[in-house]
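Hi, here's the filled form for the chain we discussed.

Project: internal
Contact: R.S.
Residues: 337
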Amino acid sequence: MKLKDKELWLELYEVAKNIQMLEPWKYLWDMDLLMYVSEEMQDVFYCSVMGRGGMHKAIAVYQGNQINGFLDLAKNQYPNYMLVNYQECLMCNFINRQETLPKNRELIKELGLSFRGTWVSFECFEKGYEPSPINIKQVKVMIEALKNFYMMFRAIIEKGMKVDFERGEVLARHYDKNKKLYLNYPNQLMIPKKEFDIIGLKEEFRNEIMKLPQTEMELEFEFLNYFPMRIRENKEQDGRIYYPRVRFIADRKTGFVISHDFINKNDYKDEKEYVIESAELLINYFYKFGRPKRIYVRDEESKMYLNELVDKAQIKLTVRPTLKAIDEFYKSMDRMM
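And the returned structure, exactly as it came back:
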């Protein structure tokens, strides 16, 4: 390890130690968000404290529109095997040795650190990937985010900063150039708008698709998520394991899975190509069996991609965090694994 990298790691562990001494999980719930606007990184960071309920103690740092996944999780009860698709963040964990990733235990040893009882370690949660240790670029992000979290939290417990978390307020912090100091203040939650590449369809499609008969069938369609199945060969150069993508069409009424695919990320060029390919699969089904009465998808992102398609085909589109037929198929797979 380079000396400069080691110094950064040790600085990060020092910040984490300072936070641990304050025990923020005794004061804050996971929905009590602290928001830091970083001028240097031109982004917004949101910090959530876990452990008030006596479970896993950690500080999760969400960057930019990653906060949308966190809020989505808070609002919807997704099946456990789907949670990896909505939790994208960097996390500072306060856990026992057995829960610490082996690579993080090796790192701690290399840094010359030691822990008794509670170990401190850092993980990256990224959609489509198994949780992994953070890299040196993410170390720099965590140093800035956690240093500012530490100062914001001290403003609450030492200076009596009042924040009405129950009414949707957050504690915000930014650097004021004119005053040349950091300001902490209650504020309304700012949520970055996530952009989508809407699937554009020509007007001719509407005329053609409306000639197809409409059936009473209700379909479930899953195409954006990944299944947390560990495949040893699915490994990046940096050692991270990536999950296969899943794409299902199922009959909601009968529970019959019409089509199912596990797709490797190397099988498509980019996200746009994959989404268009998935829409074409659905359209081909319409030509074969007719337009269904309704399609169920798991989340708002899936709905956004399909909005124009179902609008032109005059099909109702409904969001449900649980998809009865597809989830039953997942359960059957889990029993076989």
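Let me know if anything looks off before we file it.
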